[in-house]
Amino acid sequence: MDRRAFLQSVGAITLFAACGKSKGIIPDEVDNTVLFRFALASDVHYGEAETDYINHINTLKSGFKTFQKNNPCSFFVLNGDIIHNDPKFLVPAYEAVRGLHENLYVTQGNHDRVSDEVWKQIWGHDMDFDVSYGDYAFVFGTTSDAVGALACPNLVKLKTLLDKHKQKKHVFIFWHIHPHGSMKCTGVKELLADYPNVCAVFNGHDHNDESIHTVANIPYMFNGRVAGSWGSFDRNFRVVEVTKNTVVTYLMTPHAKKKQTTLNV
């Protein structure tokens, strides 16, 4: 089926058509019961000089803990730039954030300058990996390397993971760096077009971007930052809620909701 999406630029709530669906929601079909919920943030920059990264991490943990009490999430993702350049920060950063959620997944950003082996030793999974929860699959990939160079997603690994989950209802992808920004990665749009169950891609890196960009009818979602020396005023985490007919997403500041968007699925 043709996958169409449109973004209404006015108002706090916007609507997309996504995940291979092009019809509107029929009123009788609307069911707002949340079937699955997860959360994510990015750009912690643990260790960056002259920044209060410890305080910002604690604010994130406190805000998410409060949210989680009444809105349980199945997992939490830190989508890159967990540390700031020096590998010596990786272990203390892990100790600082591991209490966010019992299911904590991470991606490598350009400031996470450690080897694949060290990354797996600390976090317990590869740079490129996947997890699934029932009808939903989640694909994670690196967009950098051990020296901090920017990199496009590995399309061979991506295709393998997407093929694995072709029968899933929804697939969500996490990359630190937006492949269609300054990178202008080739082949990503064409590959994702073959998988209509891809609902959304989540990016970090751009600290001042809290918006959603539509590329080839797929929403790419940004969430600002947790810490770092520049970027958005609010220190956000993003929440994603799956219902029968929609995927709803919004930012928490971390104690107030803003920028709610609904994807028609």
From TrEMBL:
Matching entries from Pfam families are given as:
Metallophos (PF00149)
Which InterPro entries does the record cross-reference, listed alphabetically?
Calcineurin-like_PHP (IPR004843), Metallo-depent_PP-like (IPR029052), STPP_CPPED1 (IPR051918)
Give the molecular function GO annotations. Answer: hydrolase activity
Ranges for domain Calcineurin-like phosphoesterase come to 36-208
**What PANTHER family is this protein classified in?**
METALLOPHOSPHOESTERASE, CALCINEURIN SUPERFAMILY, SERINE_THREONINE-PROTEIN PHOSPHATASE CPPED1
Q: What is this protein called?
A: Calcineurin-like phosphoesterase domain-containing protein
Q: Which organism is it from?
A: Sphingobacterium paucimobilis HER1398
Q: What is the lineage of its organism?
A: Bacteria, Pseudomonadati, Bacteroidota, Sphingobacteriia, Sphingobacteriales
